[in-house]
Amino acid sequence: MTAPAVDGVADVPVVSLRGVRKNFGDLQVLDGIDLDVHAGEAAFVIGPSGSGKSTMLRCVNSLETYQGGQIWVGDYLVGAERKGDRWVEAAPKVTAARRADIGMVFQRFNLFPMMTALDNVVSGMRMVGGVRKQAAERRGMELLDRVGLSARAGFYPSQLSGGQQQRVAIARAIAANPRLVLFDEPTSALDPELVGEVLDVMRDLTREGMTMMVVTHEIAFALEVADSVYFIDHGVVVESGPPSQVIRDPQHARTREFLTRVRNDPHEEP
Ligand SMILES: Nc1ncnc2c1ncn2[C@@H]1O[C@H](COP(=O)(O)OP(=O)(O)OP(=O)(O)O)[C@@H](O)[C@H]1O
After folding, report:
1. How far apart are the CA of 51 and the centre of ligand 1, in A?
2. Which residue's alpha carbon is at the smallest distance from atom 28 of ligand 1?
3. Where is the ABC transporter domain (predicted)?
4. Which residue ranges make up each domain of the chain?
5. How far is the centre of ligand 1, averaged over its atoms, from the C-alpha of 149 (Å)?
6. 131 — alpha (psi -120 to 50), left (phi > 0) or beta?
7. Are the CB atoms for 216 and 44 separated by under 8 Å?
8. Which pLDDT tens digit goes with each residue over 215-264?
9. pLDDT tens digit string along 140-156?
């Protein structure tokens, strides 16, 4: 890997992708993605099914490897660590520590089924270590309160609705005060009447200045709360900018066609 061009420069973005390429065998999924997310920014990623949105998020926290370009998270190159003046492949423990500093919310909640809501939230803290049990549980209760679920602290995931489970998952994702939270279609698996309660929690996080990357099909929500929107198709960023531009006044035919399709049939897989 090559040395960074901007090493040591202040005010680097929290996340920066440069020419990122990723393939699964013959399938080119990311074909040169450029994207920056700054501190406090909520960057929304929209696009058709299969365009590479989830894969891009998963590359940022090393759940997938990438084959070309560079992904920077703050001052480190994802997948690599510095040895002297060289970058070498990151050791598994380095990757694990970095991943603990990035929260992730999945489409299907991914809570531990044998743990209560509180223990699930606390598990997000223990991974970074050093947090005493009592203090962790106190903070866990605060986080559950923040997502409106302190009364459900002792419930197991199977005793919670999908919307409640996803709110617990969000509390867990922010438990370790991560530098960045990734949301991978957080409302796609929910019954329509449960979507709003999850969006409410996410809206609060954007207002609090959480740095977020959100893959979503909720276009109206993106228009309302995003700081920036990236429209991705076939593994490339077709168009990006503020939501007032990309969603209200798209410049590219592909963006317009996608938005029209989603608006005309919200039940269609975009
Ligand atoms: N582990 C994998 N192995 C092989 N192909 C994969 C793998 N993961 C994803 N793909 C393929 O990569 C392409 C992009 O998938 P990805 O999930 O990133 O798309 P997406 O834009 O998030 O779509 P959706 O909105 O449907 O979730 C798809 O064609 C998918 O089938």
Report:
1. 7
2. 50
3. 15-259
4. 110-178
5. 33
6. beta
7. yes
8. 999 999 999 999 999 999 999 999 999 999 999 999 999 999 999 998 87
9. 999 999 999 999 999 99
